[in-house]
Amino acid sequence: MDIKKVKTIFFSPGRKTGNIASIFSRHLGYDYERYDITSHKKRDTKIELASDEVAVFAYPVYGGRVVDIMVNQLENIVFNNNIAVVLAVYGNRAYEDALLEIQDLLEAKGVKVAAAGAFIANHSIMRKVAVGRPDEKDMEILEDFAKKVRNKIDNLESFEKLEKLKLPGNHPYRKYNGIPLKPKGNRKCVACGACVNNCPMNAIPKENPRYTDKSKCITCMGCHVICPQNARHLNVLLHELSEIPFKMKYGKRKEPDIFI
Length: 260
Ligand SMILES: Cc1cc2nc3c(=O)[nH]c(=O)nc-3n(C[C@H](O)[C@H](O)[C@H](O)COP(=O)(O)O)c2cc1C
Ligand code: SF4
Ligand code: SF4
Prior knowledge:
Elements: E1 5-10, H1 16-28, E2 31-36, E3 47-48, E4 53-62, E5 65-66, H2 68-73, E6 77-78, E7 83-90, H3 98-107, E8 112-120, H4 136-155, E9 184-185, H5 194-198, H6 222-226, E10 232-233, H7 236-250, E11 257-259
Parallel strand pairs: 1-2, 1-4, 3-6, 4-7, 7-8
Antiparallel strand pairs: 4-5, 8-11, 9-10
The structure holds flavin mononucleotide and iron/sulfur cluster (2 copies).
């Protein structure tokens, strides 16, 4: 198939998914445009794909599912019989239904998933798990995956000829109700506003950036990552109490899965 451009749409509060999406897109070898939908301020962007464009969707796995923000973003995209590549990034526990779910959502919009990958990155909440991931070995797999995807697209006669990819996952999807722990700011905060602007949920008020609106916060930890003062944290005791057993259960290294 003759493809003119790739449009890479990603959500990445902890920046690891964005990094994986960019490296993958670069190695595909087409011109590509990036759409970072992380901040609540960037969510209104209308994206339209021509029939000779490929969509890459990259998102972190939350509770074994596609993060809601990516699900909602799909409503703001105009498709024209496109093929897509999906990249689910997870924190070494499990990605469960996160590939099947996006394939179902895209199929309902007439989009065919040509390839899918599940890659591992340092867990944004349980930071002692998958430390240093993605690492050199992950990057080699990612680059090789991009080359194989390119080869598949080059050899594809037409959109119609693309067969449905068999992806892991179950119906009904795993239930996910969020995480009760929410970060908040401490005395180190100098009210620079970086977390306010970057929060995906607009959960941090400009007038008081130490506060978190718990009804909006999705515990993405983006504010923790972006804060130059290291001022936003989860409750230390409760966090440590959950992190130790989590690491014992899910600490063993997993490898990326690719489907082409
Ligand atoms: C709210 C939340 C839920 C998560 N759920 C899972 C999960 O179900 N399985 C898993 O292995 N990792 C899970 N993770 C870890 C993230 O998928 C992982 O850290 C990912 O790299 C985050 O991407 P980012 O750095 O682009 O934000 C979760 C992280 C968050 C913040
Ligand atoms: S306040 Fe909550 S939703 Fe907003 S960046 Fe921080 S963790 Fe994410
Ligand atoms: S990024 Fe840190 S220092 Fe800046 S407003 Fe947020 S909590 Fe305060």
